[in-house]
Specification:
The protein has about 350 residues and is α/β, with parallel strands linked by helices. It has 3 domains: about 40 residues, no CATH class; about 170 residues, Leucine-rich repeat, LRR (right-handed beta-alpha superhelix) (Alpha-Beta Horseshoe), CATH 3.80.10; about 130 residues, Leucine-rich repeat, LRR (right-handed beta-alpha superhelix), CATH 3.80.10. Helix content is about 35%, strand content about 15%. It has a 12-stranded parallel beta sheet with strand order 1-2-3-4-5-6-7-8-9-10-11-12, with helices on one face. Strand 9, helix 11 and strand 10 form a beta-alpha-beta unit. The chain is elongated, with a radius of gyration of 25 Å. The relative contact order is 0.06.
Length: about 350
């Protein structure tokens, strides 16, 4: 198209066409621009995704100035701003955030504490549309967690909308009272609480309140066992559960199996680096009928009682990947597993 006629063409394009979602990996590029084109685009107030790649050293003042300018001409719907120590310019960032209509906010490793999280929660509650909130590697305690409830339980949130929440590697802590608030939220689709020194959490309550929860990551905590208060009528759509690097033993595996029995769509289960032993592994697999991927690395699984475990693995016809490395299984038993599972299952031992 002749560049001289492009501004006229652009001015006729309906706003809904300019703001619609384009196919992934599609690049739309203008080789030549003009002030007229820029003015038309600015007036369209296009939806915009801001992603800041890792730039060292980071000029946080420059970034805030650029965002301040962008937010006046674009409708910012996604902010991906990791590793820039947002706390230093949080007052300015807060002003910018109030002018955005965010679907996604990623503030990974920004030195944010409870006060900043409370402000962010209040703004996002007003926006009513944020569905992805990644706050990993900050300094959030149970106080910040409670303030997030305003967002997680927002009654005005879009019908059917659920939230992907990542709070990995914060300071939530080991005391049960600190994590009770997360058990009370009701709009989660994904929850990551990895690396938070949590020792006691009721998975059943999380599942009961969050009917759309598909992925739960509680890895690298201090969890040893689980409470079980689910009625026989409850079933859940959980697909992925990561409990690796905890302190789950045989009793913990037994209590966990009662919860997993209600997860009829569970596809991936990671129990690596616990202490569930052969008995605990058998108890778990007995209840999980839909698994495609199972991680049992370093769990003190030994030859004693392995026959029943082997039989259950054979019966799990959906299973395609199994890790058993770092256990005490003899070569003869391993060779037998390889033979009976065949090419159907990728066995890592």
């Amino acid at each position: 198209m002749n560049i001289n006629t492009f501004p006229d063409f652009l001015s006729t394009v309906p706003s809904e066409d300019l703001t619609r979602t384009w196919p992934a990996n599609r690049t739309i590029m203008l080789r030549m621009t003009s002030k007229q084109i820029k003015d038309i685009i600015d007036n369209k107030y296009l939806s915009t995704v801001i992603y800041l790649k890792y730039i060292k050293p980071v000029d946080i003042k420059f970034i805030m100035n650029q965002l301040s300018s962008l937010v006046t001409t674009c409708q910012i719907t996604s902010l991906d701003l990791p590793d820039i120590d947002m706390k230093k310019r949080f007052k300015k960032f807060k002003e910018i955030l109030t002018k955005c209509k965010l679907n996604k906010l990623n503030l990974y490793n920004n030195n944010l504490g409870d006060e900043e999280i409370e402000s962010i929660s209040e703004i996002l509650v007003e926006n009513e549309q944020c569905s992805v909130l990644h706050l990993a590697h900050n300094k959030i305690t149970e106080i910040g967690l409670k303030s997030l409830l305003k967002l997680l339980n927002n009654k005005n949130i879009n019908i059917g909308q659920s939230i992907d929440l990542n709070l990995c590697n914060n300071n939530i802590g080991y005391e049960y009272e600190r994590v009770k608030s997360i058990e009370l939220c009701s709009t989660l689709s994904n929850l990551n609480l990895c690396c938070n020194k949590i020792s006691n959490i009721d998975i059943d309550k999380i599942l009961l309140h969050n009917k759309e929860l598909k992925s739960l990551d509680l890895s690298q905590n201090r969890i040893s066992t689980f409470n079980f208060n689910i009625s026989l009528n409850n079933t859940f759509i959980l697909e992925n559960l990561n409990l690796s690097y905890n302190q789950i033993d045989i009793l913990g595996a037994s209590s966990l199996s009662k919860i997993l029995e209600k997860c009829h769509k569970l596809l991936t289960l990671n129990l690596s680096h616990n202490n569930i032993c052969t008995e605990g592994a058998t108890c778990i697999i007995e209840k999980c009928l839909s698994l495609t991927t199972l991680y049992l690395t370093a769990n003190m699984i030994a030859d004693d009682g392995i026959e029943k475990l082997t039989q259950l693995l054979i019966e799990r016809t959906f299973l395609t990947k199994l890790t058993l490395s770092g256990n005490n299984i003899g070569k003869d038993i391993t060779d037998n597993l390889i033979e009976v599972l065949g090419d159907r299952v990728k066995l890592i031992y």
